[in-house]
Every structure is written in C-alpha cells, then in structure tokens.
Amino acid sequence: MSRLTLLLPARARFGDTPLPVELGKRLARADHVSSEAGAKAQLQRHLQAIPAHAHAPVAPITRHLDAEGAEQQAWLRADPAYVQIDINGGRMLACGQMGLTAQEAESFVASLRTLFGDEGFPISAPTPARWYLMLPREAKLPAFDPPDDVLGDDLVPHLPQGDAGRRWRRLLNEAQILLHNHPLNEARIAQGKLPVNSLWFWGGGVLPDFVRVQARVFSDDVLVHGLLKIAQAPSAPTPSRFDASLRDGDAVVDLRGLRDVAALANEWVLPAATSLRGKDELTLDFADGMAFDLRRSQRWRFWRKPLRLLAE
User: Fold this and answer.
1) Phi and psi for 83 in degrees, rounded to 5?
2) How many domains are there within the chain?
3) Phi, psi (5° rounding) for residue 199?
4) Mean pLDDT across the stretch 11-28?
5) Helix, strand, coil proportions of the chain in percent (round to 5)?
6) Which of 79, 88, 173, 188 is the one with CA 20 to 30 A from 159?
7) Burial 140-151 (b: 16+ CB within 10 A, else e)
8) Which are the contacts of 207, defined by CB distance < 8 A and separation ≥ 6?
C-alpha cells in the first residue's frame, strides 16, 4: 500500500469555478476528514518539527538551508523591501524577490552593518532575496507579520507593537533612511527597477531540534527544503504533473501554488486516482483543514451526488 498526498491551498483560493464532473464524483465518494487549518499546521502534518512550536520560525530554517552555522543562534529575517510612500505612511509593494544581484545585496547590507552591529545583531545576505540578523539564542522577539500578510497593505498596522516592538520600529526607521540614501537605488530607478528602501523583519526564532519525515517530499518551497535538510532527507522539486513513479512508496507533493481547478483535475487528481491499486490511497490536504481521502474501493459509492464546487 502507498499513500500519495497532495498539499493544496485553501479551497477558497480556487474560487467558485465549477468542478469537472469526474472530479466532482471522485470527491463526493471520498472520505472527508477535518484537521487544523493554516499553513503551519498543514506542513506540520507531514514535516513534524520537534518541538512542535519550533515549526513557526522561518528564519533559522531557511538560514540553515542558505548557509552553515545556524544551530547555536537565533535568527530573524530582514528581507529587502520596497515601500511606496503615500499620505497614510507607506505601502509595501515588494519584499524579498527584487531582482538583486549578489553584489547589489552585499552593497546594501554593507551600509547597514554598523546600525545592526551596534545593536549586537550582525546582518548578512547569503542570498540576494533572503537577508538575516543573527541574535542571541535567548533573545525575546515581538510578533512579526510574514510579508505575504503585508504586501499591498499599509505598513503601520503590521509593525510590532508595544514596548517589545519599540526597538524594532526604531531600527526599521533608521534602516529606511540609510537605504533611501544608498546610491545604488538611483541607478536601479534609472534602469526601471524597484529601489530597496526598506527591510521587513519576520520569522524569528531558533532551529528545531530535529524534523521527522515519513515520505518522499516534492516541493519548490525553500522552507520545505530547509526542513528536509534538518531531517537529513532528500528533497526534489515539484513535478509538472502526476507520474506513476510517485507511487513508489509514500510521497507528498507540494501544490500549494495551484489555482486552476482544471489542472488540479486533469494533471493530478484524476490520473492519480486512476492509478490506485489495492489499498493505495490518494489524499488531498487543503490548507483550510479539509482533506479528501480517495481509495479504489470507493467506486461503489455511486449514489453520492457529485460535488459542484470544492467548498461544498
């Protein structure tokens, strides 16, 4: 028996597109299972970080992937960002992936080294898109919103609040001044590129003690690859479509970026369901906590009315 699990976004991300009839039949006949909602809980079901609360800190996990020596310290992402100034303050329009070269990233980071070094938080950029602050392992950090929650929104409501956040608000303001005045930004604007005029702090914490993985994992997510590195498990990119080789033992395929119902049906669920043999299982694990477990024996549940929408 083998189990193939497809990690999928929340069902609402597919909108109200009607399901292809055959997919609606398969899902109606499947077993429906409810689990904890949210991206962290979804990953934790398949990549079990120990202790469990350690699954949240993105920074040390991706730092472990990007460079050696992440084990002894706490880490905080300080990713390059572009904030558009408006009458209400500022709106984040880009973060992380800004088309920087390694040389550009190093030049920007060099201008920030004194600011963060004086605080005892050395800054580094092992990749152009992911910058880090190294912190004492016992550092107490306020809550930071991930950039996906901030992009397109006003910055102020997402800044760390209270006494715990005061230091970080000050450091952000000072970093913005230094970056705004950096000569590289004028050159980037002249080339039609976005300037780097801000940072975004997020994902702070320490590395999990270890990660338990019980299946082969296919993903394009750097966080997933970082977790697999901690687990000393092999990693592979997400395939473009279902392939019979995914049936060689248990496998988890990360499709959380998928938004097309037709692609979900025709490239993944229907060919995977058709390949089911004996006690094989196919699980669709959605980020909202709903899962559909499909097995060959369910074909006898022909009286069930096909689902029209994923959210039904």
Assistant:
1) -115, 125
2) 2
3) -120, 165
4) 94
5) 35, 25, 40
6) 188
7) ebbebbebeebe
8) 54, 57, 60, 61, 64, 70, 71, 230
Strand partners, 135: 74
Under 8 Å between Cβ of 211 and 230: yes
Report residue 183 as tokens. Answer: 């000569």
Classify residue 88 as exposed, middle or buried by CB count within 10 Å of its CB (0-12, 13-18, 19+). exposed
Neighbouring residues of 132: CB distance < 8 A, sequence distance ≥ 6: 59, 63, 66, 75, 76, 77, 78, 123, 124, 125, 126
| Same domain flag for 244 and 169 | no
**Mean pLDDT of the residues in the chain:** 94
| Amino acid type, 216 | R
Q: Is the residue at 307 inside a domain?
A: no
The structure's pTM equals 0.90
Spatial separation of the C-alpha atoms in residues 70 and 77, rounded to whole Å: 13
Segment (H or E) for 272: helix 270-274
* 3 state SS of 205: strand
Structure confidence by residue, pLDDT tens digits, 147-171: 999 999 999 899 998 988 999 999 9
CA distance 31 to 263: 22
Three-class SS state of 6: strand
State how far the Cα of 301 lies from the Cα of 298, in Å rounded to an integer. 6
- Expressed as residue numbers, the domain containing 198 is 58-205
Cα-based distances in Å from 85 to 92, 180, 182, 189, 198: 9, 12, 17, 15, 11
Give the per-residue pLDDT at 54. 61
Same domain, 89 and 226: no
Assigned token pair, 138 = 């016992």
Non-local CB neighbours of 157 within 8 Å, separated by 6+ positions: none
Q: How far apart are CA 100 and CA 191, in angstroms?
A: 12
Do 132 and 243 lie in one domain? The reply is no
